[in-house]
Every structure is written in structure tokens, then in C-alpha cells.
Specification:
heterodimer, A: about 325 residues, mainly alpha, Arp2/3 complex 21 kDa subunit ARPC3, 2 domains, B: about 260 residues, about 75% helix, globular
Chain lengths: ~325, ~260
């Protein structure tokens, strides 16, 4: 899943790099809050562990081998923030000294393997752990978390590859960077991960957890236990919002009167003479910002902010009512 | 007691245990690469100031990525080959092997696209990848890694992260040797068909994790004994000699090519 340089456009690399900056800042501050100076050698050595996890070959069906990423394993054992930093350092060393994964694509690689994978894996793990409490089912939960997280990360990598030919073309209309669109990149990346690599990652993650839980249970009990799944989900949604722009046409059943007319050669009278509501951002665009993509992203951010504020107000009212009662 | 006199006819079932051999090879390769670079380097391109080399390499990789002109890509590739020719033979061989594998892999990956008619851009991607990999390898083979991590300060990486990277490098060797010993032990003990391959590798990783946790504790105590309080500052020496000037001039020559060849069709 290590993306080399020049498969992604410089602008994609810049966007992914800048998306990682606040994530690293939050991860550093969370890790610092936990044990301050004590975390520093732990992070360094965990990064070495993460590096070696990616080096160790695991047996795959047919006598071949592959390697695990181990992000979910470290997230479950040490917390997602520590996993984010450790895997980032391991990826930096791989890119800088071993040429595995590009320098410019470092942000994209970190986004997939050091952010999406540990945080989603940890989120699935905590959500499922709340639902199922028995000890034996814990290993199944860990398997599912690692399997799902690796596949989600592979899907993100596939989308990053797949949007290149749609966004960056030369004068003749030929792709400048990764030439395969979403219809090729997504199955090419996800099918091997769904069938083989995900299963291996899940087995290794559950196996290592089981071993550590049996031989050194003290380590398992001192985990960082809080995540913000809703905020993470929102962030992921904002990031993947522009993908919607790639699909031609309007969303199904969201046609305007003119589009209905073009589709069925007839505009129902109620729609023609009906009430037309003038909104602030028609078609998710602003009067000042002409670029559709920028408008779309800003709309996503504003929309999410309004949703968060509304949820906060509602929860505040509910809390007050509870207090009064 | 009859069984003692019977001839042993046990022949173990053949089983492919590629994962053990490949793991040993990849870890040993990494460990030896880190150890090799700790040995002293010679003059020439090896002696150029590390911060200058780091920034120039980064700038050239960005130019490669920005370039949409095959002439500049070919020109920069040839300049990278010229730079590689200044390395000693052992480094040159290793870099040639790595770069050719990367080119071959990219070529195979882009072959369907070429067959669909996108020949020009696919060849350019291969050339760009070759150039970037070559430049990065020249940097990592001609510079002490500790000096490269110090140079990260130039792109505003905090000192504490640089310390974490340095600790990681040291412990890749220590934990790597530990993992290799466990893999050797596993190979010696596994005779015939091995059923629980995933369990074996999980156990090795489990032991490795517990060992890392213990080592982190011990390292922290050792650091605390030496008055470590959480703050750390790195010193970056920046001396400017004639060879640095020549190196930067050469890189500026390549950068000029980017702007001059922009409109060449």
C-alpha cells in the first residue's frame, strides 16, 4: 500500500500532507498529555516495532508471503494517537532511507496507514467491545477491526489513485499521473485486500493481542481508552466530499424543474408553478467563489459545523431538562 | 527395546516455509544497511554538507513531480546518473539494483495503460520515478543518516521528533537482531509440515512487542538518570566549503533546465 512518488499529482500530495498536519498536532498533544517525557522512548521503540512488523513476512495461501501493516495492533495496544505517530515515523524512515513509498507521497501514505487505519480500527474495536463483552469474542472483534481497517485504508489509497486520471490530464486528454480510473483502481486495490491481505492482517493482529494478553496482561490494561468517532467520521466525510463532483449529473431524484423537463420531456404543473425557495448557497456554490470544487468543500465544512452546533445545542437542552427533572 | 534397533524411516513432509527465510533476509538486509552506513564515508559527493544535500534532493524531487516536459525529465535523469557515478562501486551497485527493480515494477504496472495508447505519459512517469528513486538513494548512500535526520530541522520538524527518529533507527537494529534470532530458533524447531504458521509469526511479534515495551521503560530510566526532562535540542553544523558551492551550482543548473525547457516541444 506504499504509494511511490509521481503516481499522485503534486497538488494531491500537498493536500494529503496538509491534511496530516492537524492530525499529527492532535496526536502529539494527546500523547504528551498521557505520560509526557516517558512516552518519547516508547514512541521511538514502538516505531521500530512498527517498522519490523512491516518487514516480517507472513504466510499467504499458495505458499507466497506478504506483510502486515500493524497499525490497528499498535492502536489497540498503545492507543490510536501513539499508533499514528509510531507508524508515521516508521513510514518516514522507509521513505527517506529505504526508498519504500515516496517522499512527496509521504502525507498520502501516512493518511492511509497512520491515520485512517489505526483510528478506524480502534473506533470499530471500541464500538464492538461495548456491544459484546465476553473474552472469547474479543479476538473476533480484533480480527474484524483489523480486517475492516486495512480494507478501508486500501479503499482510500485506491480512491487517491483513481481520481488522478479524472483530475489531471494533458492537452490531449491523456492522464498525467496514475492512469487508472476509479473503476480499475478500486477493484485492483480492494479485491486482494478483501480476500487475502485483510484476513492475514486480522489473524496476525488477533494472534499478537492474544499472546500479549496471556503473557503480559498488565500491558493490555493500561490503554488509552477515548476516541471521538463522530468527529473522525465527519473529517473523513469532508475529505471524501469532492469525490461526488466526479460523478456526472445530479443526484438521483434531486433534479430541478429544467432537468425533469429534459429527462421526461414534461414538467409537472405543480413543479412549474410551485414555490421556489432562494437559498444562500445554490448547488453548493457561493456567489464569490466560482470554483465548484472549492465551493463544494467549503459547503461540506460549513454544513458539518452547523450540524455539530445543532447537536451541541440539542444535547445542552436535554442535559438541562435532565438536571431540572 | 526392539524399537531401538529398528531403522528410523521418518521423512518429514515437505513444507514451504518461505515466510521465515524471507523475514530473516529482509531484516538482515535492513540491519546490515543501517550498520554499513555507520561506517565512515569518503570525500567527493560524500563530503558535501548534509543539509545542502537534503534540501537540494527535496527540491529536485519536487521539480520531477511538477515537470510535464519529457525533455527536462530526461535531462534531470541524466544529471542524477552523473551524480550517482561519483559514488563508490559498492554503493553504485546497490543503487543500480534498487532503481532497476523500481523501474521494472513501474513499467509492468503501467503496461496496460501503454497498450491503451497512453505511451508518452507512462514513459514519463517511469522516468520520473527512476529519477526520484535515484536521487533519494544517492542521498541515503552518501550521507550519514544521523545527519539527514538533523537536516529535517530545516523543514521545521520539531527536535523531539528528530530524537524519536534517532531512537527508532537504533532500536530497528536491536529489535531486528532479536527478531532474527527468534526466526532462526523457529526454523531449527520446525520440522515437517507446520500447521500454525500464523500463530508462530504472531508469537514472534508478541515477544517483540513485550520486549519493546521493556526496552522503552529501561531507555526512559537511563535517559532520566542522565537528566532528561522531556526537552531536547539538536545542533546542526552548517559549514560551507568549495565542494558545497560546486554541488549547489550543479543543482541550480538542473533547476534552470526546468524553466528553460518548459516550452520545448
Amino acid at each position: 500500500m506504499h504509494i511511490p512518488d509521481n503516481y499522485l499529482s503534486p497538488s494531491t500530495c500537498a493536500v494529503m500532507g496538509s491534511a496530516m498536519l492537524p492530525i499529527w498536532a492532535v496526536a502529539v498533544s494527546k500523547v504528551k498529555k498521557m505520560v509526557s517525557a516517558k512516552q518519547i522512548p516508547l514512541l521511538g521503540i514502538s516505531a521500530a516495532f512498527s517498522f519490523l512488523v512491516m518487514m516480517l513476512n507472513i504466510p499467504l495461501p499458495g505458499g507466497t508471503t506478504g506483510h502486515a501493516v500493524g497499525s490497528v495492533l499498535i492502536a489497540i495496544l498503545l492507543g490510536p494517537s501513539a499508533a499514528c505517530l509510531s507508524v508515521s515515523v516508521a513510514l518516514l524512515i522507509q521513505a527517506l532511507f529505504f526508498g519504500d513509498g515516496g517522499i512527496l507521497a509521504f502525507g498520502a501514505n501516512c493518511f492511509n496507514m497512520a491515520f485512517i487505519m489505526p483510528y478506524t480500527g480502534y473506533m470499530i474495536f471500541t464500538l464492538l467491545s461495548r456491544l459484546v463483552k465476553s473474552d472469547k469474542s474479543k479476538y473476533i472483534i480484533i480480527f474484524i477491526s483489523a480486517y475492516a481497517a486495512l480494507n478501508i485504508a486500501a479503499f482510500f489509497a485506491a480512491v487517491e489513485f483513481g481520481i488522478q486520471p479524472l483530475l489531471f490530464k494533458d492537452a490531449a486528454g491523456l492522464p498525467l499521473y496514475s492512469p487508472y480510473g476509479l473503476s480499475i483502481a478500486i477493484p485492483a486495490m480492494t479485491i486482494p485486500h478483501l480476500l487475502v491481505a485483510g484476513v492475514a492482517e486480522g489473524l496476525i493482529t488477533a494472534g499478537v493481542f492474544a499472546f500479549v494478553a496471556k503473557t503480559s496482561p498488565g500491558i493490555i490494561e493500561n490503554r488509552e481508552d477515548r476516541t471521538y468517532p463522530l468527529y473522525l467520521l465527519l473529517l473523513a466525510m469532508i475529505v471524501i466530499t469532492p469525490i461526488g463532483l466526479l460523478a456526472p449529473g445530479t443526484a438521483w431524484s434531486e433534479w430541478g424543474a429544467e432537468e425533469i423537463g429534459a429527462l421526461v420531456n414534461f414538467i409537472p404543473q405543480g413543479m412549474r408553478d410551485g414555490f421556489s425557495f432562494k437559498i444562500m448557497m445554490p448547488d453548493y456554490t457561493f456567489p464569490i467563489i466560482k470554483n465548484e470544487t472549492t465551493g463544494y468543500v467549503i459547503s461540506a465544512i460549513i454544513g458539518s459545523a452547523i450540524l455539530v452546533i445543532v447537536f451541541k445545542i440539542v444535547s445542552e437542552i436535554l442535559k438541562r431538562r435532565k438536571k431540572d427533572a | 527395546m526392539n524399537w531401538l534397533y529398528q531403522e528410523d524411516t521418518y521423512t518429514p513432509v515437505r513444507d514451504r516455509k518461505l515466510y521465515i527465510d524471507r523475514s530473516i533476509l529482509s531484516i538482515l538486509g535492513t540491519v546490515s544497511r543501517i550498520r554499513h552506513e555507520e561506517k565512515g564515508h569518503r570525500g567527493g559527493i560524500y563530503a558535501v554538507s548534509p543539509p545542502a544535500k537534503f534540501v537540494c534532493t527535496l527540491a529536485l524531487i519536487i521539480l520531477f513531480s511538477l515537470s510535464r516536459n519529457i525533455y527536462f525529465t530526461a535531462f534531470a535523469d541524466s544529471c542524477a546518473i552523473l551524480m550517482a557515478s561519483l559514488l563508490v562501486m559498492s554503493d553504485l551497485k546497490r543503487i543500480a539494483a534498487v532503481t532497476s527493480v523500481v523501474i521494472l515494477f513501474s513499467f509492468i504496472l503501467l503496461l496496460p495503460s501503454m497498450l491503451m495508447g497512453n505511451i508518452h505519459n507512462s514513459i514519463m512517469i517511469c522516468m520520473k520515478i527512476a529519477g526520484s528513486v535515484l536521487l533519494l538513494n544517492i542521498l541515503s548512500h552518501s550521507t550519514k543518516w544521523i545527519n539527514i535526520t538533523r537536516s529535517l530541522k530545516l523543514i521545521r520538524i520539531p527536535d523531539i521528533i528528530i530524537l524519536i527518529i534517532d531512537i527508532t533507527m537504533k532500536y530497528i537494529v536491536i529489535l531486528g537482531n532479536f527478531a532474527v534470532n527468534m526466526l532462526y530458533a523457529l526454523r531449527l524447531r520446525s520440522v515437517g509440515k507446520e500447521e500454525g504458521k500464523h500463530r508462530s509469526i504472531s508469537n514472534i511479534l508478541g515477544v517483540l512487542f513485550i520486549k519493546s515495551k521493556e526496552m522503552a521503560e529501561m531507555t526512559y530510566h537511563a535517559m532520566e538518570c542522565r537528566c532528561f526532562s522531556g526537552s531536547y535540542s539538536t545542533q546542526m553544523k552548517f559549514t560551507f566549503k568549495a565542494r558545497d558551492f560546486l554541488y549547489i551550482l550543479f543543482i541550480l543548473f538542473i533547476c534552470a533546465g526546468f524553466f528553460l525547457m518548459r516550452d520545448v516541444k
